[in-house]
Amino acid sequence: TRRAESLFRQSFARLLYVHTTAKRPISPSTIRSFLTECITAFPHNTIFLSLYAWNESRFRIDDRVRGVMRDIVLSNHQNKNEDETDHITTHFFAIHADIQRGTIQGSNLNAVRGSFERALAHPGAAHSAGLWKWYFLYEFENGNSSMKGARDVYYRAIRACPWAKGIWMLAFEYLTGVMEDAELRGVYEMMVEKELRIHVPLESIS
Fold first, then answer.
1. Given a cut of 80, is residue 206 above it in pLDDT?
2. Looking at residue 61, what is its pLDDT?
3. What is the 3-state secondary structure (H, E, C) of the chain?
4. φ, ψ for residue 178 (rounded to 5)?
5. Residue from 125, 156, 155, 150 nearest 136 by CA
6. pLDDT digits (tens, 9 = 90+) for 16-29
7. CB 155 within 8 A of CB 133
8. In this predicted model, what pLDDT tens digit does every residue of 46-89 receive, in sequence order?
9. In whole angstroms, what is the distance from residue 37 CA to residue 162 CA?
10. Rounded to an integer, what distance in angstroms lies between the CA atom of residue 141 and that of residue 112?
11. Which pairs with CB-CB distance under 8 Å and at least 24 residues apart come from 179-185?
């Protein structure tokens, strides 16, 4: 069965990892070839994806991880037999890989934004409060000083997740130096209107 095949491949992949980290090196190309086969067969298996990223992280010759994500993993989203959760997990991995790539090879804000946007375009992730918060925090930490990107993502996030109090509160936690008092008051009043529990007055959190 596919489950048995997946478990067998996972065990063998872990064995390769243990041998390599124990100073008994196996050719990186051998590991790469095996993991590419595994990812082709099981494109949303995060064990194979993580091990592939680990193998490539030791060598900065070219951007193979991004190529695998683009050509094998994300191109498999038309398979109707796969769980929607698999697709969301894969998008999270793609975002993480792009962020790590930026850290090591030079910041590429647009590439990371593209990964977030592709993830949010997926029906299963469009209303993920966790994903929206991650996007907001990325923009807050990496965008320009005007915080336009963070503000834009914030307003999109509260429209996508109007029930998520944690998303609404981002304005008071991160944007008090960016938003005008009237704008913050408007956010506060919308929270009250939506019956989101707020235990302190606006003056105490702005």
1. no
2. 47
3. CHHHHHHHHHHHHHHHHHHHHCCCCCCHHHHHHHHHHHHHHCCCCHHHHHHHHHHHHCCCCCCHHHHHHHHHHHHHCCCCCCCHHHHHHHHHHHHHHHHHHHHHHCCCHHHHHHHHHHHHCCCCCCCCHHHHHHHHHHHHHHCCCCCHHHHHHHHHHHHHCCCCHHHHCHHHHHCCCCCCHHHHHHHHHHHHHCCCCCCCCHHHHC
4. -115, -45
5. 150
6. 888 888 777 788 88
7. no
8. 788 788 778 777 665 446 666 666 666 566 554 444 455 556 77
9. 42
10. 13
11. 179/151, 181/206
Q: Is the dihedral of CA 140, 142, 146, 148 positive or negative?
A: negative
Phi-psi region of 23 (alpha: psi -120 to 50; beta: other; left: phi over 0): left
Residues recorded for the chain: 206
pLDDT of 186 reads 92
Which positions ≥6 away from 154 have C-beta within 8 Å? Answer: 136, 167, 170, 171, 175
**Which of 98, 109, 103 has its CA nearest to residue 73?**
98
* pLDDT tens profile 108-163: 788 889 889 988 988 878 999 999 999 999 999 987 777 899 999 999 999 999 99
d(CA 95, CA 71): 15
